[in-house]
Amino acid sequence: MIIPRTIRKLKDKMDHKQGPYAHLFEPYKGDEVVSLDCETTSLDVSGAEILSIGAVKIRGKKLLTSERLDIKLKPPKTLTGDSIVVHKLRATDLEGGIELEDALQQVLAFVGNRPILGYYVNYDIRMLDKFIRPIYGFGLPNKAIELSHVYHDIIKWRSVGGNIDLRFDTISKQLDIPMLERHTALGDAITVALMYVRLTHGSPPEVAC
Known about the structure:
Number of helices: 7
CATH architecture of the domain at 5-146: 2-Layer Sandwich
Number of strands: 5
Order of helices and strands: HEEEHHEHEHHH
Strand order of the largest sheet: 3-2-1-4-5
Helix content: 25-40%
Structural class: alpha/beta
Strand content: 15-25%
CATH superfamily of the domain at 5-146: Ribonuclease H-like superfamily/Ribonuclease H
């Protein structure tokens, strides 16, 4: 039986309310958001492995590039020619990578109970949960912010009756935000962070017809 995420989060909170990670389940009251991205061997969560994790903090309308994660993991056995087409990472690119459990500890410490921002952010959260839950006994309880939803909600009034192109490259172009190191975890996390700040603190973008 599939347990709805809301119910599972409540159960996790009860199970861990006295543990070392109890703070993760407390409501967040600050003004920071963490933009996060994972590069993986596949787009299928059930069989994918994490190759790298990038994250950067946003405080209000400031991007805190000095507070970031740029984690490379040890290359898994599933790193093949077919998977390299997806993420553009080779085994040599992951030289010096760390163990997955060490990476997860860094993610939990860095993110805390802040909202997690991303492009297809639920995929990244599901990938992390896939490995966090067996080790720690819970999944990430953080609020998720989907960049494409933020973009859609802000510009939908400019596209009445028309389709809104929610592709990453298109959003970046419409917001006049350069794509930094595309298909690297940290590069994508920073690009998403810049787009989010532009959407939430800048003037509404023009939409090409």
